[in-house]
Specification:
The structure is a single chain. This protein is mainly alpha-helical and 181 residues long. It is 58% helix and 10% strand. The chain is built from 9 helices and 5 strands; from the N terminus they run E-H-E-H-H-H-E-H-E-H-H-H-E-H. The protein has a 3-stranded parallel sheet. It binds adenosine monophosphate (AMP). Adenosine monophosphate (AMP) binds next to helix 2 and helix 3.
């Protein structure tokens, strides 16, 4: 899943994972879990999460490797890769990380409002400056991955500015229309 913070990646990834009966791997959730559990890794990344900064590739790579090892064949990956360096490293390490990409499109102003409104109690959703910072990082580092993936995997682009069930239906229709890898 690719999309801006607030585009609904978590919600959609959970719905798609349920539909396909595969695990939902969210690097953000896994990292927040490490922080909550007070692990060494959690302590190392806590400040960056709170500031809306990306966690170093090596640390997120460790979390992803563990989750993929547990997931087996199929999974919905949400929040990774987030940079070209992560995508390239994953490509080298895993071969094909993704059979398909679902790209949730959402204008920044809508994404920003959603983040400010959502009540998940995440520290990085409260502060307008942190929200703006996350959106900037998204544009600079993650959005270029949509083009990076084109030609490597089918990209299903879905308008994220609609009710969640409609977004899920459109994503599924797009995925089901693809040739099986
Ligand atoms: P998310 O729940 O996907 O919005 O992620 C929340 C936070 O976790 C991000 O703002 C980053 O600090 C960190 N994070 C999640 N995934 C990654 C990743 N692939 N690379 C670096 N940092 C990440």
């Amino acid at each position: 899943m690719l999309g801006a913070p607030g585009a609904g990646k978590g919600t959609q990834a959970a719905a798609l994972a349920k539909h396909f009966g595969v695990p939902h791997i969210s690097t953000g959730e896994l990292l927040r879990g490490e922080v909550a559990a007070g692990t060494a890794l959690g302590q190392e990344v806590a400040d960056r999460l709170a500031a809306g900064d990306l966690v170093p590739d090596e640390l997120v790579g460790r979390v992803v490797a563990e989750a993929l090892a547990q997931a087996g064949e199929g999974y919905i990956l949400d929040g990774f890769p987030r940079t070209a360096a992560q995508a390239q490293a994953a490509d080298e390490r895993y071969g094909r990380l993704a059979d398909a990409v679902v790209f949730l499109e959402l204008p920044d102003d809508v994404a920003g409002r959603r983040l400010a409104d959502r009540a998940e109690g995440r520290p990085d959703d409260r502060d307008p400056e942190v929200i703006a910072h996350r959106l900037r990082r998204y544009h600079d580092e993650t959005l270029p991955l949509v083009d990076w993936y084109r030609g490597r995997a089918p990209v299903v682009t879905v308008d994220g500015d609609r009710p969640p069930d409609d977004v899920t239906a459109e994503a599924l229709a797009g995925l089901e229309g693809l040739d099986r890898p």
